[in-house]
Write a structure and sequence with these properties.
9 helices; globular
Length: about 200
């Protein structure tokens, strides 16, 4: 059984969705980032960058345990472990990798900044709030154009979709109206049709 160290955030839900999607048994351990649990030595031993989520797989490569942090790396590890959610075709594989990196480098960090300055900042900083809201709108536009005529980001559902979806579902924090991005809205509804997506999103620790 895989140990999942997580909290109720988009990054945390990426991995709970992936574990559910792959049919892997796991036990969720709360890391309350509101109480600075991520800085405790026992968690730093698992995730040296003090960020959730992280996993420990007792049945890692060659049967030896492995500890993993960083959501992109965890998604790729679980995909390779199970042979799921990554195309075998080389061109399609690299398309998935590009969109996964797009999420890791943009549709995540910048939306996280939007969440902070729009919803959580103790002092209103209009410049930052407007900057990250505009960047959120731009990124949603990129995704909307990509999804035109497509059911998923790259043909069939992949780790790219699993990485992007939990961040899209925090649209209210970004002051985004999904109906303004109809291709994304349709994709979000399609993702929600999968029971394993709903189970992963509904995990509360």
């Amino acid at each position: 059984m895989i140990d999942l160290y997580t909290w109720n955030t988009p990054n945390g839900r990426k991995i709970s969705i992936m574990l559910e999607a792959c049919g892997l048994s796991y036990k969720a351990h709360p890391v309350n980032i509101n109480e600075d649990d991520q800085f405790k030595p026992e968690f730093l031993a698992i995730s040296p960058n003090n960020k959730i989520p992280a996993i420990i797989d007792p049945d890692g490569p060659d049967g030896a345990p492995i500890t993993m942090f960083e959501t992109g790396a965890i998604l790729l590890y679980l995909s390779e472990k199970t042979g799921k959610f990554m195309p075998t075709d080389v061109r399609a594989r690299w398309e998935v990798m590009q969109w996964l990196m797009w999420q890791m480098g943009g549709f995540g960090p910048f939306l996280g900044q939007a969440h902070h300055f729009i919803k959580h900042a103790k002092v209103d900083v209009p410049y930052a709030r407007e900057r990250y809201h505009k960047e959120a709108q731009r990124l949603w536009g990129v995704l909307d154009r990509r999804l035109e005529g497509r059911e998923y980001v790259v043909d069939q559902m992949s780790v790219a979709d699993i990485a992007i979806y939990p961040w899209a579902m925090r649209y209210e924090f970004q002051q985004i109206t999904p109906s303004d991005y109809p291709n994304v809205a349709r994709w979000m509804a399609r993702m929600n049709e999968h029971e394993f997506v709903r189970r992963g999103m509904d995990l509360v620790v």
